[in-house]
Amino acid sequence: MIIQLQQDISDAQKSVIIEKVNKLGYQTSEVTTQFAHYLIAVGKAEFDLRRIGHLTGIKDIHRVSDPYKLVSKKWRVYDTDIDLGEGVHINRSELSIIAGPCSIESPEQIDQTIAHLKANNIRLMRGGVFKPRSSPYAFRGIGLEGLKIFSEKCRAAGIKVVTEVMQVSQVEEMHDYVDIFQVGTRNAQNFNLLDELGKIDKAVMLKRGFSGTIEELLQAAEYVFSNGNEKIILCERGIRTFETAYRNTLDLNAVPILKEKSHLPVIVDPSHGVGLRNYVEPMALAAVMSGADGIIMEVHQCPEKALSDGQQTLNYHEAKTSYERLRQTYALKKSFNGV
Ligand code: PEP
Ligand code: MN
User: What pTM was computed for the model?
Assistant: First the structure.
């Protein structure tokens, strides 16, 4: 059950509510986010909501039986809008395109990417500076100093920075340079990291764990929300299956399901989802038709020379065509009106 409290509720009024709810057999947790104040009540007893609904200080009450609650659409029926400032939003009414290299490699590469993005009207740049790599001998990113340059150049160009955070201690040091903190698939259930990201006022993009269920992704989002941060984006990036013909199985089934279950925007990553350059565009278009609110994809000035994930990365020319087709596809999908 979610009890939304009035912003100006007094401590005494809150205590009365908590006592009454506890007496009904429910445990309560208080959640204060950048936007509102809630009590989450967990329990099983059946009771008439009117027994507490009249108490002073309550704005709204909803029964949500799912294990995730605040991210559930059963409670918040309108869609969440993530406002990144300077007119950049991620929501369910426009297509967001996030593009850039797998890894940030050099200041020159940042300049080239920004020029490419600007030429294609894209306001969100991806690029890892802390890279999770299966091999410890692979390129692991240029780190915080690289992020500072990435951020400075993007800020000057009006472009938002999307980059992966790998551990709790990085949240604070990266904070001022990031617009969207990406949580990678390998950290999908790093609950300490999710807790920490819940305490800041920056958007968080949660990638689905490669062996994670849809419900686990939503519970990861619940961690962030219940710690106080409502600015969450969900990302389907493929799961590991028995198939070996491609890198991951991009689970587009997840898109309409996530959108039905949650009010959060849903982004798809076809680059990691299929892992093979030639199939990135078709899967990106399919993702849009499945209802994705955005696409994150890897682009590089010369994918053959990329320091990571070149095999799934588009060059600028290929990417340009894909952006156009993505926009056309999104317009077509929208014309179906609610489908
Ligand atoms: C990435 O975006 O480069 C990345 C490592 O993603 P994932 O965590 O989905 O593998
Ligand atoms: Mn990558």
Answer: 0.97
